[in-house]
Amino acid sequence: ETGVTQSPTHLIKTRGQQVTLRCSSQSGHNTVSWYQQALGQGPPQFIFQYYREEENGRGNFPPRFSGLQFPNYSSELNVNALELDDSALYLCASSRDRGDEKLFFGSGTQLSVL
Amino acid sequence: SQKIEQNSEALNIQEGKTATLTCNYTNYSPAYLQWYRQDPGRGPVFLLLIRENEKEKRKERLKVTFDTTLKQSLFHITASQPADSATYLCALDIMSNTGKLIFGQGTTLQVKP
Question: What is the pLDDT of residues B50-63, one digit of tens each?
Answer without folding.
Answer: 988 999 999 999 99
